[in-house]
Every structure is written in C-alpha cells, then in structure tokens.
Amino acid sequence: MFTLWAKLISKKQDKTFWLAAFKYYLLIALFIAAPLVWVINMLVFKPFLSKHIKNKKEILLNLN
User: Fold this and answer.
1) How many distinct structural domains can be found in the chain?
2) Which of 7, 9, 22, 33 has a Cα at 20 to 30 A from 15?
3) Number of neighbouring beta carbons within 10 Å of residue 59
4) Alpha-carbon gap, residue 27 to 11, rounded angstroms
5) Are 11 and 5 in contact (CB under 8 A)?
6) How many CB atoms lie within 10 A of CB 46?
7) What is the pTM of this model?
8) How far apart are alpha carbons 26 and 2 in whole angstroms?
9) pLDDT, position 64
10) What pLDDT score does 46 carry?
11) How far is the C-alpha of 25 from the C-alpha of 49, rounded, in Å?
12) How far apart are CA 38 and CA 46, in angstroms?
C-alpha cells in the first residue's frame, strides 16, 4: 500500500495535498480501521477457532 501512495505522490505536482491525504489515511487506518478489524476478527473467528487453538497449543507444549 505504501508503494501505491509513494508512486501517486511522486507523480503529482501539488504534493502537499497528497501528503496530507496520506497522513489522514494513515491515521484512519491505524486508529479506526485496524481496531474495528481486530474486534470483528475476535467476535467472528475466535469463538469458532478456540478448540483448534487449544489443540495446537497442547501439541506444541507436549513437544518438550
């Protein structure tokens, strides 16, 4: 994703607007989108995978 933004910004004449847009994109991605994706992941996948995770953990602990 960084490569796409870097190419886009480097091609433009008015870089200040695009740099500001990238700054706000990063803020939104880090502080809004990432926590939402994490919560959705925990609500949707964790309940169904907990047994699988427990089994994997026990297998790895028994290797010693």
Assistant:
1) 1
2) 33
3) 9
4) 23
5) no
6) 10
7) 0.64
8) 10
9) 67
10) 82
11) 32
12) 11
| Cβ contact 12:18 at 8 Å | yes
Token pair belonging to 29 = 């991605």
**Domain membership of residue 9 as a residue range:** 2-61
- Indicate the SS3 state at residue 34: helix
The predicted pLDDT at position 63 comes to 85
Would you state the pLDDT for residue 2? 86
Dig out the tokens for 28 from the structure. Answer: 């939104």
Q: From first to last of its 64 residues, what are the pLDDT tens digits of the chain?
A: 889 999 999 999 989 999 999 999 999 999 999 999 999 998 988 888 888 888 999 999 988 6
Rounded CA-CA distance 61/42 in Å is 24
Instruction: Compute the Cα dihedral for 34, 40, 41, 42 and give only its sign.
Output: positive
Contact 18, 8 (CB under 8 A): yes
